[in-house]
Design a protein that fits this description.
Number of helices: 11
CATH topology of the largest domain: Rossmann fold
CATH architecture of the largest domain: 3-Layer(aba) Sandwich
Structural class: alpha/beta
CATH class of the largest domain: Alpha Beta
Bound molecules: adenosine-5'-triphosphate
Number of domains: 3
CATH superfamily of the largest domain: P-loop containing nucleotide triphosphate hydrolases
Shape: elongated
């Protein structure tokens, strides 16, 4: 079932002393979905991941994992979760096979089925021929694969990954992201990160958390719409009076950058590009450069998270 809801978070808060590190957040994750949980340092990502994985009690709120309430039925809820914390829990002095066998027993996989579970997890995580190697001798990228393998060995419907690519090199990052996308086809995955391109490369849903508040929850397509251009950078050899450009349908304002270079801001519903090109030809304005300016995810992120900082809500609870 591709639309099966696997994680339901309702009005979740967590206080440390008098400070609310996570404030009244609600969201859900479905099977087949990779949710990116994005936020600056200290935003509350790790706190949320620790609550979802059953390692930290919420102050208020409810979490259901695969239909099981995390507080009322922790055993079944936790069995439905695979968790890769920020520091992978791998034992450097064990071989990959020894470690995964140990994880299989911790996850209460029957003795007779442990070997098959281990081999299946290794294949999914690209660890096929590393079974006899000591974890301490593996590269950081492969150690991260072992961390992922321990998270999925018991075939949990939900996988929670806290900053899964921190400290990896670009090739390892690419491989781990590919692996996460593959896992996302069969599971519900939530991954926390402060790396913006990671979300674009890996996730289909994005949430931004800032100072404990959920300030954005959108699909990657929705996010792309936020990023759509509404500014043109143009260069004219013989620019007219700027009022002529302001009159073009859709144009909201024009900024002179000097040397015939202009920034034309427009209403996304009425793109003035065609009219601008035609008028330039008719009137010999000498248009020699025209480039849409896209807002980057970073622009959106900074905009959303700093807006939030400018109007802080009260702490307490
Ligand atoms: P980072 O990316 O830096 O790990 P984060 O988004 O994961 O940040 P959290 O680790 O969840 O953020 O922390 C959220 C807030 O709660 C921070 O202000 C942090 O200082 C505070 N905090 C976290 N753990 C504790 C704790 N055990 N006691 C007191 N305050 C804490």
């Amino acid at each position: 079932m591709s639309d099966e809801v696997l994680v339901e978070v309702e009005d979740l808060s967590r206080a440390y002393g008098g400070m609310l590190a996570v404030r009244h957040i609600s969201f859900s994750i479905r099977r087949g979905q990779v949710l990116g949980f994005l936020g600056p340092n200290g935003a509350g990502k790790t706190t949320t991941m620790q609550i979802l994985s059953g390692n930290l009690a919420p102050t208020t709120g409810r979490v259901r994992i695969a239909g099981h309430d995390l507080l009322e039925d922790p055993r079944h809820a936790k069995q439905a979760i695979g968790y890769l914390p920020e520091q992978p829990p791998v034992y450097r002095e064990l071989t990959v096979d020894e470690f995964l066998d140990y994880c299989a027993s911790l996850n209460r996989i029957e003795r007779g089925k442990r070997r098959a579970a281990r081999e299946a997890a290794k294949i999914k995580c690209g660890l096929g021929d590393t079974g006899k190697r000591l974890i301490g001798n593996l590269s950081k990228g492969y150690q991260q694969r072992v961390g992922l393998a321990q998270a999925i060995i018991h075939l949990p419907p939900v996988i929670i990954l806290d900053e899964p690519t921190v400290g990896l090199d670009p090739i390892q990052i690419r491989e781990i992201r590919h692996l996460i996308r593959e896992l996302g086809k069969e599971h519900g995955v939530i991954l926390s990160t402060h790396i913006l391109p990671e979300v674009q490369a890996t996730c289909d849903q994005v949430q931004i958390i800032s100072k404990g508040d959920l300030v954005l929850n959108d699909s990657i397509e929705g996010l792309s719409r936020h990023m759509q251009s509404s500014t043109l950078a143009i260069a004219l050899r013989d620019p007219p009076d700027l009022a002529r450009i302001r009159e073009i349908a859709g144009v909201k304002s024009v900024q002179d950058q000097g040397d015939g270079r202009l920034h034309v801001f427009y209403d996304p519903a009425t793109d003035p590009t065609d009219a601008l090109v035609e008028l330039s030809v008719q009137n010999r304005w000498g248009l020699y450069e025209l480039q849409p300016q896209r807002a980057s995810l970073e622009d959106i992120f900074v905009h959303i998270t700093t807006e939030e900082q400018e109007s802080p809500k009260g702490t307490a609870a």
